Amino acid sequence: MSAMATSFGIDKALEILGVKTINEGTSTGLNNFSNGDIIESYSPVDGHLIGKVKTTTKADYEEVMTAASSAFKTWRTMPAPQRGEIVRQFGEKLREKKEALGKLVSYEMGKSYQEGLGEVQEMIDICDFAVGLSRQLHGLTMHSERPGHRMYEQYHPLGIVGVISAFNFPVAVWSWNTALAWICGDVCVWKPSEKTPICGIACQNIAAEVFAENNLPEGISCLINGDYKVGEFMTKDTRIPLVSATGSTRMGKIVAKEVAGRLGKSLLELGGNNAIIVTPDADIKMTVIGAVFGAVGTAGQRCTSTRRLIIHESIYNKVKTAVVDAYKQLRIGNPLDENNHVGPLIDTDAVNMYSEALKKVVEEGGNLVVEGGVLSGEGYESGCYVKPAIAEAKPDFKIVQHETFAPVLYLLKYSGDVENAIDIQNEVAQGLSSAIMTNNLREAERFLSVQGSDCGIANVNIGTSGAEIGGAFGGEKDTGGGRESGSDAWKIYMRRQTNTINYTTELPLAQGIKFDL
Ligand code: UN1
After folding, report:
1. CATH of domain 274-476
2. 199 has a pLDDT exceeding 50
3. Considering the entire predicted model, what is its pTM?
4. How far is the CA of 116 from the centre of ligand 1 (A)?
């Protein structure tokens, strides 16, 4: 580790998480095989170098796959509830290291410390969920049409699951996938975002500890590092029956095509362009909390971030004033300082995209009611801090249709019935999260009905972000159609087998077919 930042207890956090040397943990403990280029991880908080990680070459990848394949042979034969016990222990370790990991997430990614802790809490919650699920991987039994026959279905593990995760939830989204995949009997190969590789190493260390304590092969959890080229090793690899990928729609389309081309499965969790509809019956106070947290939480870098407020014309000015006033209270700065609401964007490329979006909305005829801007000077040396902005816009502006991963909120006006607002809400390519603020039952039910929101998530009197792990998470259209975490999302990590058993001395054929010999 070089040039370690010393402030905010990060050194201590890294020590607790066992992140020690510059080359550590590029794979499954097969560190000697990591011979690729170096990725340097700089904190967007203060611009300091956190650490360097070697990337995975094709030869390293083959070593990883050998370790994963052999680990799968052991892991798949362990009864699912025993696998659940391992996940329970992993969840316990996360509880112990919650503060350290939350701090690292905050420091490497830039989200507020509270949100870093919240992200680790999501990991703990999915472990608890998976432990219970490890005794509930149920199939159905059916009545056979033939006498003396029994028919049922069972679920078997798929094998090696590839996980590609994004920088914005550098640890939680991996755990949604792995905790479920593990209890299902799969082993995982994880490529974290090249923007947050140290978080990957920290998680790998925690998992490795649990596997070592239980005399299990570390290959159950494998880590590879690098950019899209390393991701391609997995998308092209027929030994990986499922690739779960989180990131941009652009990336998802490439992954989907590659994996489908070899008839593999993909689970995609891609971009969102999430809106809150605010009707004349909305509670304004609740609306402001939901909208502001949704738009500026994680500096607008959640896939569930609120990007559009669709406000009825009769309350438009009132809502606008309330939200603009709330923005005046926002404190932007070091996310490890709990007084601050908004931390930095991930890097200066993200800052450029933010600035570009503000320029474009004005060019298209929009009106900035909260101007935004890039911050500089003391505390903002990394160049990644921006002011959350609000623009009055029209639903069909190109920039409004586009997902900008930054704190830019568009105010859109609707008139007439809630149907008009729903039309605006649905008229974007993405379909992840959506919300309506109303105390009117008819409007709420209309929003949730078949003619309502076309998103994977549709909330009433709750904002668009901050979904609980117990529900299936994901969305439609350009969001990719995948579902992760709760409900029956586990099924994608398993293969279903239908079994018919004949316990007679005859061999009757189905559909009444006679075949006499
Ligand atoms: C993401 O941004 O990729 O619903 C995931 C939320 C979080 C997860 C977001 N629980 O905002």
Report:
1. 3.40.309.10
2. yes
3. 0.95
4. 12
